[in-house]
Amino acid sequence: MLKAVKPKTRKKQNVLARHSLSIVSLAILILWTVLYAVSNPKTHWGSFFGNAIADWSGVAVMVIATKYLYERGPAESRKPPLHLPGSTWEKISDHSLTLFLVVTGLCWVAVYVHADPESKWGQVVGNVLSEWTQILALVIMTKRLIEPHSKESKK
To answer: How far apart, in whole angstroms, are the C-alpha atoms of residue 69 and residue 62?
Structure first.
């Protein structure tokens, strides 16, 4: 006697499970920010917390931005879920990650220009700005440059 086999249904995950990497990345960033706010930046730990804010800002933006934004060119980049008609919308969609990094990077530049670079938070903003330029440069470089054993090198 044959039994009907139930098709496997996708187990519904709760919000915490679906977004755990984003949540944990942001929680760690908040932790470093709070620890830096209550520490002396002239101590080893205070300096570490300030640098960690910039580093974990980069982690958080890469985790979250790459979930929702796209970049045409790199093989590692996801494809947009829908095709927006019109050449302007298509270009915006195809380069939304770069556009996001440029716009937010300009905001960081504006904050940095108005901050005292020697102040407690001015140093952190400078480090975040540096992190942003590294991320933007990496996105742009991955459009044209390849490494052995990468998806692009197999083309």
So the answer is: 10
CB atoms within 10 A of CB 127: 19
Q: What is the C-alpha to C-alpha distance for residues 105 and 29, in angstroms, rounded to an integer?
A: 18
- Please name the residues in contact with 42: beta carbons below 8 A apart, sequence gap of 6 or more: none
Two structure tokens written together for 78 = 């996801």
pLDDT digit string, tens, across residues 128-142? 999 999 999 998 888
CA–CA distance, 117 with 99 (Å, rounded to integer)? 26
pTM for the predicted model, two decimal places = 0.73
Alpha-carbon distance 139 to 155, whole Å?
A: 19
Residues 6+ apart with CB under 8 A from 139: 71, 74, 97, 98, 101
CB 135 within 8 A of CB 129: no
Three-state secondary structure call for residue 11: coil
